[in-house]
Amino acid sequence: MSWLESLTLNSPSGFWNPIVWLAFLIVFAVIGYIIYSRGNRSYKPNTDQVKPYLSGNEVEDVEEIRVRAGDIYWGFIEALKGYYNVLMRMHTGDIRDYILWYLGLGAIILFILVGGV
Description:
Radius of gyration: 29 Å
Strand order of the largest sheet: 1-2
Distance between the termini: 60 Å
């Protein structure tokens, strides 16, 4: 058994060898560097080139056009508004309440599973 075979991990679905993995990593790093070195050299960071293109329109306030995370889920939250209102009333922010809920529900589930209800 050679040293290369001693590093190979065989399994029913294939093999894994760190030397082969390292060889592929080096090959892909070289390919990545070749692609990177052929890039556009006229790019200059911290200039107008990095500004978003908005059809030639100047936007002074970025906050006006930014989509917030709350905007993404607006329809979902609006559709389940009744459910969320109930949860918001139950939400106290006290960790002791959540532990009590956890233990209470765990006891109910355990009772159902052990009791065979």
